[in-house]
Amino acid sequence: MISVLIPLLDNDELEGILYLYIPLKNISELTHDFTILWLLGGVIFITIALMLGYILINRLTRPLDEMKRAAQKVSSGYY
Q1: Domain that holds residue 68
Q2: CA–CA separation, 10 vs 23, rounded Å?
Q3: What does DSSP assign to residue 11?
Q4: What is d(CA 61, CA 36) in angstroms, rounded to the nearest whole number?
Q5: Cβ contact 5:17 at 8 Å
Q6: Residue among 61, 42, 39, 40 nearest 50 (CA)
Q7: How many independent structural domains does the chain possess?
Q8: In tens digits, what is the pLDDT along the chain, a chain of 79 residues?
Q9: Please, what's the b/e burial string for 57-70 (b: 16 or more CB within 10 A of its CB; e: otherwise)?
Q10: Does residue 9 belong to any structural domain of this protein?
Q11: Residue 23: what pLDDT?
């Protein structure tokens, strides 16, 4: 349990004490939920990054593939 004690003062006289607490079980559940969300977000981000990278690399290497096919045709006798 995490707790905080806050003194309630009035003209430097103690009028009362405010006691706030939260069980650690609630904090553990909250961090567990956030961990799952972060992992899910990370998997989605990596998937999108890989798809965009694949598309970008295909666009960048397409002219090289065309040159390779043309060179193979020329080497096999098709001028």
Answers
A1: 25-79
A2: 30
A3: T
A4: 37
A5: yes
A6: 42
A7: 1
A8: 788 999 999 888 899 999 998 887 877 888 888 999 999 999 999 999 999 999 999 999 999 999 999 999 999 887 7
A9: eeeeeeeeeeeeee
A10: no
A11: 82
- What is the model's pLDDT at position 21? 86
Give the integer Cα–Cα distance in Å for 41 and 13: 51
Q: Judge if pTM exceeds 0.70.
A: no
3 found inside a domain: no
Which structure tokens are listed for 46? 């990596």
Q: Which two tokens stand for residue 61?
A: 């290497």
Domain membership flag for residue 7: no
Rounded Cα gap, residues 50 and 48, in angstroms: 5
User: Which pair of tokens denotes residue 66?
Assistant: 């065309």
**Does residue 50 fall inside a structural domain?**
yes
Distances (CA, A) of 31 to 1, 10, 18, 26, 34: 15, 38, 26, 9, 5
